[in-house]
Amino acid sequence: MKGPPTFLQQVDNIILEHLTAVNLHALLSLHLDLSKSQIYRKIKQKSGVSPSVYIRNKRLAIAHKWLQETDATISDIAAAVGFANLSYFSRCFKDLYGYSPSWLKENIK
Length: 109
Fold this sequence. Notes:
By secondary structure, this protein is mostly helical. It contains seven helices and no strands.
């Protein structure tokens, strides 16, 4: 029997529902009915990172999956997961995974 979703599962669901939203931190506050400082404290406590890093890493994880599973372009995927700037997306992706999105695209098959 499954219980109610955990706090981070709720956060993940909101991120997925509003993937391209620029103001995801504010949306989390609205949907979870918590202040921004409460959101910050809870995410930091449960994940070890700030909400902005948590959100960015979730977006990058989705992008990583889509880069492997779809034929969409890197720029289309970056935009679909909420990154307006392709070079920032690539830099964040490489910082997290140790390789670029283009390297992944070229070496998955």
